[in-house]
């Protein structure tokens, strides 16, 4: 951690580095704007629907008690209103994601131009950061404010009074963006205390100084907690339809890390579960041990963020779903960790510089490839799927069955222009809707035909033929398999 005075830079930031940094910011903004062009997906539409229940902007903070309410993002959606283009709803995240590139550069700029540019470049192009920096949810805002909190803790010794208030403000805004920032913020305080304890050699003095430093942040959290407590008597409820995703055999903790690291390295399927999570853990441990060996000034911070925060999740048996987004608050600091690791390699031999340069370019290359996939399929092609169904239907209302009606109806209702009747999966054989849309299967598990009824039911068999598959790629979205009923299906079709 940067509590001591900085040493003289071996590669000070020069005007040409500022120009390169500006180009990186422009690149990052463009990538996020590109990522914001696709259709809104389930959770974004869900958040937008929640704003329709509000009568005033301030109700976002105390009336809308719902796990899909990311307060600052919901406030933006409420201000923007209905009927806007997708990128407008995602604009707050685009701005926050672009500013994050600047803040990450600021965090390590006084350590030299090499670290600054590496951190900014990785923050600009890593797919998970582009994804959440272009989505109408609170993760992009949360990352921005946790970066600010990182700087406040990192420079607390040089600017104690101003840093504690900066940390308090960052805590308020990060928690108002997404509550998953709380473990990260807590571990930053633990890192602060650990460093002070090492310097002072007195536990209670370190504890006292940490309480003093964290007091504004505690006050900010008290305000948020008070609003949530007040709103608990008005918990927002809506039809959900039940959970459709369960933990894999390796557990949700490993599954979530697997998904996040998988898409951060190009999205190539692993030969066995846990490979990506294990590889990432090995890298983290290696980096932390190398920092310990050289007495790196941010060892406490990185150890708290990358080891302490996941330990909190494990202790609380979280997450309860295998989604990578639950660990984006930790992964967001990968650009800083890599920059601090690689930046030191430029002082060493040509072999070291070449080896780490190849590793960095490989990481950039697989993320560039992944971004192309993301821009093509993104979070889904729901508008096209709805249009296909509406254009091919001759009588209304359109009848649609699904394996998860909540997921389908939330999105379909947002894009449709025609009346629709939804049929629950258990009623499809009897009611025989004109269409089936599967939302729980991967494309590889969507057969050419779906056969229902027949000899083992009272109803005659009915065949649905696959009309199209609408794919997604990345950390969000739902694959849709669209099937149409075949009234005169040939014998032996199934």
As a percent range, the share of strand residues is 5-15%
Any idea how many domains? Answer: 2
Instruction: Return Rg in Å.
Output: 25 Å
- Strand order of the biggest β-sheet: 2-1-3-6-5-4
Mean pLDDT: 90
Shape: globular
Low-confidence stretches: 1-8
Q: Look at the helices and sheets and give the structural class.
A: alpha/beta
Largest sheet: 6 strands, mixed
Fraction of residues in helices?
A: 55-70%
Order of helices and strands: HHHHHHHHHHHHHHHHHHHEHEHEEEE
| Beta strand count | 6
Number of helices: 21
Distance between the termini: 64 Å
What does this structure look like?
The chain has 494 residues and is α/β, with parallel strands linked by helices. The protein has 2 domains: 363 residues, no CATH class; 105 residues. 58% of the residues lie in helices and 7% in strands. It is built from 21 helices and 6 strands. It has a 6-stranded mixed β-sheet with strand order 2-1-3-6-5-4. Strand 1, helix 20 and strand 2 form a beta-alpha-beta unit. The longest helix has 29 residues. The relative contact order is 0.11.
Labels describing this entry:
494 residues, alpha/beta, 2 domains, 6-stranded mixed β-sheet, 21 helices, 58% helix, disordered N terminus
Chain-wise SSE layout:
Elements: H1 15-35, H2 42-51, H3 59-62, H4 71-80, H5 86-89, H6 91-108, H7 113-125, H8 127-132, H9 139-154, H10 160-177, H11 181-200, H12 203-231, H13 252-264, H14 275-294, H15 299-315, H16 328-331, H17 334-343, H18 350-377, H19 382-392, E1 398-402, H20 405-415, E2 420-423, H21 428-431, E3 435-438, E4 449-452, E5 462-470, E6 480-486
Parallel strand pairs: 1-2, 1-3
Antiparallel strand pairs: 3-6, 4-5, 5-6
